[in-house]
């Protein structure tokens, strides 16, 4: 589990906790790459794990030393929870971007979030970070997509103008399907099945669908 913790530094540090079932959680010792500074403030949002590493997705706000403030969509990776952690800023077009969800399969991870007010996705491979184009559909501004991976298939849920749009990556493109009303909150994919949580003006709903 990832979150923030006050270590009496200039700001909240990104920290991780590991499950010590059945009684609770242990906070992992601080790592310099996850710590705040007088200029950089980390904000974790999601965790994923591949065959070779852990990944934390989120953002870093750069206070700019008195100049303009920039928020960068960011991932941190490490071979194990105790580190060492390495920060990777994601390629973006806006000075305000954040990663909000992550999923991994094999050696690769995928991250989704917002680049400005537009939904965005990235592939984080062991040796590279690249932007992944999302389905070319009209979307609602400022709503981050949800992401999941199963059996090597990447699924994404984006907020369409009238309903959620679900899409499965095939090669370099996407196959899109109309989903339920609302905005995506979280998405979980398993072989043959999708589970989607949506938010609406009247509350939160859980949806399931067969994919085969």
Q: Topology of this protein?
A:
Elements: E1 2-5, E2 13-19, E3 25-27, E4 40-49, E5 54-62, E6 70-78, E7 86-89, E8 97-105, E9 108-115, E10 118-125, E11 128-131, E12 146-150, E13 153-159, E14 164-170, E15 173-178, E16 183-190, E17 193-200, E18 203-210
Antiparallel strand pairs: 1-2, 2-3, 4-5, 5-6, 6-7, 8-9, 9-10, 10-11, 12-13, 13-14, 14-15, 16-17, 17-18
Description:
Strand 14 and strand 15 (173-178) form a beta hairpin. The protein starts with a strand and ends with a strand. The protein has strands at 2-5, 13-19, 25-27, 40-49, 54-62, 70-78, 86-89, 97-105, 108-115, 118-125, 128-131, 146-150, 153-159, 164-170, 173-178, 183-190, 193-200, 203-210. A four-stranded antiparallel beta sheet has the order 4-5-6-7, with no helix packed on it. It is built from no helices and 18 strands. It folds into two domains: 1-132, Tachylectin-2, Chain A; 135-212. The protein is 0% helix and 58% strand. By secondary structure, it is mainly beta.
Summarize the structure.
This protein is about 0% helix and about 60% strand.
Question: What would you call the quaternary organization?
Answer: single chain
At CATH level 3, the topology of the largest domain is Tachylectin-2, Chain A
- Rg computed from alpha carbons, rounded to a whole number of angstroms: 17 Å
> What is the CATH architecture descriptor of the largest domain?
5 Propeller
Backbone shape: globular
What is the number of beta strands?
A: 18
In percent, how much strand structure appears in the residues?
A: over 45%
Question: How many domains is the backbone divided into?
Answer: 2
Give the C-level CATH assignment of the largest domain: Mainly Beta
Largest sheet: 4 strands, antiparallel
